[in-house]
Amino acid sequence: MSTERDTGRGTEHDTGDGAVLRAVGLTMAYEQRVVGRDLSVDVPSGEFTAVIGPNACGKSTLLRMLSRLSRPAAGTVYLDGRDIHRMRARDLARRLGLLPQSAITPPGISVFDLVRRGRYPHQSVLSRWSAEDERSVDRALAATGMTELADRDVDELSGGQRQRAWVAMALAQESPVLLLDEPTTFLDVSHQLALMELFAELHRSGGRTVVAVLHDINHAARYAGHLVVMSAGRVVAEGPPAQVLTAPLLSEVFGVDAVIIEDPLHGGPLVVTAYRGRDSATASPERTATA
Q1: What percentage of the chain exceeds 90 in pLDDT?
Q2: Residue 72 shares a structural domain with residue 159
Q3: Which residue among 40, 41, 111, 287 is least enclosed by CB atoms within 10 Å?
Q4: Which domain holds residue 46?
């Protein structure tokens, strides 16, 4: 049972169920258009949560509201039991980092200078750039394979390299909760897998709570321990991939015929899909599911 109380610092929300980030009764609106009503979702602490669903179902809008980038028309988002809209910006940034879907790069900025911006929440007006700040940036550059490009202008990089630079900035922030909106956009298969392994390791070894909006269902099934499935602005299923990913659900949400088999490399569920159309009877199943 959850309760609320006023502590003088703002409303706190007691859940007692291990949710570090919680949305309660959200009405999500985007550019004056309501995309979801009465939406509630729990993000388990220390878990890798993947949010999946068809295009325009509200995944990115939900992530923006979980990060305080957008305010819901109704409802509340709680971080560590506190209403995020009543938290100081610096306090929130120390606890929660965000990699948005369409990050705008300041002109003429180097990769190193972009990544070092991730350290701003840990600094004050009087503090100076520290050895720990330097180490955090170096670790983030190394983890994303960007060390050799640190002196390059971000504008000179390929789309995939720019994406990795932004990921490095989010990692340098070293917040215990990390939100990622389609983090593998523009990346080739090798770099997609490298980043997914990195995000999974952050929660396995570092104890971070990671929430990622993903298009690739099999990436979500392989790396996430908790899935949130959305459709038309609603959460239609939550839980472990093996329980959530079923042929009926994939048919209902994505409009595809699917067979769920055991992943021969990782042991979890592997989704094999076939396009449902006039020629669906002769369509060839695909070993990748992106939706």
Answers
A1: 66
A2: yes
A3: 287
A4: 3-244
